[in-house]
Amino acid sequence: MKPERASAPVRAGLYGFLARAFDYPDESFWDWVEGRPLGDVLDVASIDLVPDAMATGVIARRSQEERESEYFAAFEGGVPAYEGLCRGEEGREGILEDLLRFYHYFGLKLSDDRRDFPDSFVTELEFVDYLIQLERMAAARDAEISSFQRAQRDFLDRHLTIWTERLCERFAERGIDNAYTRLARWLNVVTKTHLDTLERNVGEGLSRPRSDDPSVARVGSPQP
Known about the structure:
Helices cover 55% and strands 0% of the residues.
C-alpha cells in the first residue's frame, strides 16, 4: 500500500513525512531531516496544517545508534506502534475491521513484503497521504474532490485523532521523552487541525460506522 517515496532533498508531503518519521529509523531520511527546521523539508501545500512549533522545530542530529535506541525506547519498550494496542481497552478486532474497509474500498492491500498489521501507525499515515494525493489529482482535473475529503474526515475522526492523543498520554505515563514524543505531540495537533478543516469543508461525519452503512460507502468512487 506504500506510495512511491520522494528521495531527499525533495520537499515532502506532511503525512508522507510523518509516516517515514514514525517508521524504523532510515539513516538517509534522518540525515536529510535533522539539524534544520522541519518547515524546510515539508511541501508548501502542507504548511497550513503544521503547528508553528513543528514548522520551526529542529530534530537534533543523532547517530544512527541513538536513533535506533530512541525508537526502541518509544515503541518496543514503551508503547507498541499499533492503533489497536494503543486503544487496547476498546478491542483490536473492530478497529482492524474498520481499517480494512477503508483500505479495500480504495483498492489497497497491505504489502506482502512488509507483512505489517493494518493498524500500524505507519500504514495509517501512509493511507491519509494517499487520500490527499487522490484529492490533489482530482483537483488538477477539475473533478469532484469532496468524496476524498469525506474519506479523510472519517478516517481521522475514527482513527488518527484518537490514537495520537492516546499515544501522547501513554508516552507521558511512561516518562518517555525523546524525538518521538515531540513528533507525537505535533501529530496530535496536525490531525485535529486537519479534521477541523475537513469538517468545515464537508460537514461532520459519523463517529462510528453502522454495520449496514460503513463510512467508506459514502465517500464515492475514487478516480485517480
